[in-house]
Amino acid sequence: MAAPLGWHLYAGAVALAGPAIRRRDVARLSRDGVPPARIAERDGRATLPRPDGPLIWIHAVSVGEAVSVLDLAARLARDAAVLLTTTSATSARIVADRLPPGCLHQFAPLDTAPAVRRFLDHWHPALAVLAESEIWPRQIVEAADGGIPVALVNARLSDRSLRNWRRAPGLARHLLSRLSLIAAQDRRTADGLLALGADPARTRVTGTLKTAAAPLDADPRALADLRHAIGDRPVWVAASTHPGEEEAAIAAHRALLARHPGLLLILVPRHPQRGGDVAAALSGWNVARRSQGALPGPRTQIYLADTLGEMGLWFRLTRAAFIGGSLADHGGHNPLEAVRLGAYAVSGPHVANFSDIYADLAVIGAATVVPGGAALPKALSRMLSQENPPALPPATDLTATLADDLRALVCPGYDPRVRVVAPNFKRRLSGVTATVVRLVPVQAARIPIRAAGPALPAHVPQIPLSSLPFLPMQPAVWHARRNVEMLGGLALRHGLRKPLKLLFTSASQRRHTGLTKWLIRRQDAVVATSHRSAAYLEVPCDVIMHGIDTDAFRPAPDRAALRARLGLPPDGTVVGCFGRIRAQKGTDAFVDALLTLLPDRPYVTGIVMGRAVDKDRAFLDDLRSRIGTAGLSDRLRILPEVPVDAMAEWYAALDLYVAPQRWEGFGLTPLEAAACGVPSVATRVGAFEDLVCDGTTGLLVPPDDTPAMARAMAGLLDDPARLAAMGGAARARAESMSLSAEGDALIAIYRRLLGLGG
């Protein structure tokens, strides 16, 4: 389709005006102290190298927009490098102080053809994300026509902006047709963009990221100094004021002083460079200025906070805040910044930019809209009398949802419709916990899956347990692996009417109790981790074997150095047994076998690593006593449990792994050892016969037969060549049982349950 006349006119005008635009931009940034090298970024000349791997570009023009997308940037940075661009010196300074790990900052290119092309040629983003009203024609066209998906998020256009775009309908359609996603803050913006030609299938109303943004931060030392200086005086804040609003604030302060003696007004102009003009208008008042380093004294009546980036300080000092831009018609500013920090918000009538937020806050009594400045004293006086801060409802995880939608644009195989919650309700380390910790991050590259449980590692995509009652009313799969988690899914579906499909994975290889059978019958689908486990189920099921992450679990490149770091003998042979310490796990059989083998094999060291719960404490004490009596405490060590994500290096330090269980549901440890190039001696329980190829990747022995186990261990310990050959075969076997294959098989079931195909 040919480009419309509006596009050609815009491109021509920018080409002609480009030199003048650049000179003005250089002068502005130079005045603000930006060094010449960084000013060149506006020409698309990067001052940082591009990181390896995929990169997501997020553009937000000003301080407020940039701060609101920081949490989104942090979430996206889990999967890709993130480049955040802004246009002003102030936003650059503030973003630099708050930039999440994995994120970079540069100035955005001017919307000229050379600058945009130079920028894209260097950074090669996999996705371009524009925030709020940043509809720059050249950036959108060059990116989209170059095969880069472009998204407009947190979109908010004023009525005036929409009217201006209606004057260029061809250009508007040309740009909007190139957007892969439009996430609008409100229905008014969405309807306006749809009327201009946005694709309804790609346009949705999500609410504002500013409701999901973290509370404004504040320097603890500065906050303490201010509280000490103010003492117990009452305080109110007039925040983000525009010309004409300072007069209304002063009049309100004069009226409030009659009711609240000693009241201090903190006056915060929207643009700090107006500080001198505002100070001149405060003649007759006792004023202290923040920009001059002053603190409010006992007689200070108005504290002029003519600085930038400190709003988190001011809102923490008050119960009452006037939010400017609302008496003067500027569409208002975000009242949530005040309310989140314990202040009630009052605004004038002009709040179109945040009308939805004001409506929601008004329902819970956290915000008030007054018709004019004359009504401010009454509203503020009521707020100053409040003892408790406003109570906010739980925030929705808009940022996580939006990050999922954006990932779908970066990864063609990612399907944001397949929403899954993987509960893990037990804190202790277990096979189930290990499965969740390792599998969920792999699946999260394909679908929006979140774990929910206590003490999960930070790298696992997760939601707090407290948020489960507030899950969105969207179809999702609840993937349980324990009875208590099946109960939780039933409670959410039938008690809170959440539209959940229930899935249970069973690893058990014994007859289920009556309660478990009752719970299983109420699931929508069941998975067994082995054919043996499936034989104990009385309902149809799919069999999906556990897999292993062969990147995380792999042989050590320098085993001697690894052992030295872990405090193990760098030379000799090390045999290990990991997991819960109790009779069912056969820990005593492993110890007894080594007690017979170690005296004749001084080069061998044994490790037991795990945790004994209170009921197994006597069992553990007996093992220690037997080892001590044999005089082998220095060669057969019992070590404490380590975090799941630290286990791989302990496997890699071994020469031989032993799985001595008397009973096991599935049992992943021989496969984890195999991935690290370590063969196993394992009992014939659980899935061990499927995981260990007898005579090739290890040896299998009957359960609860300590002499047989000792003979198998001795045969390998006394034949280093055979032990090494089995280690190589074990690694090859593990590579055929990938974690991604397990994740893909489960995703097919999730899709089937949600009616999305297999």
Structural commentary:
This protein has 758 residues and is an alpha/beta fold. It folds into four domains: 5-211, 3-Layer(aba) Sandwich (Rossmann fold); 220-384, 3-Layer(aba) Sandwich (Rossmann fold), CATH 3.40.50.2000; 415-543, Glycogen Phosphorylase B (Rossmann fold, 3-Layer(aba) Sandwich); 559-737, 3-Layer(aba) Sandwich (Rossmann fold), CATH 3.40.50.2000. It is 40% helix and 16% strand. It contains 31 helices and 26 strands. A seven-stranded parallel beta sheet has the order 3-2-1-4-5-6-7, sandwiched between helices. Strands 10-11-9-8-12-13-14 form a seven-stranded parallel beta sheet. Helix 12 (245-259) packs across helix 17 and helix 19 (431-443) packs across helix 31. It is elongated and about 95 Å long. 45% of the residues are buried. The mean pLDDT is 91. Pfam families: Glyco_trans_1_4, Glycos_transf_N. It catalyses: lipid IVA (E. coli) + CMP-3-deoxy-beta-D-manno-octulosonate = alpha-Kdo-(2->6)-lipid IVA (E. coli) + CMP + H(+).
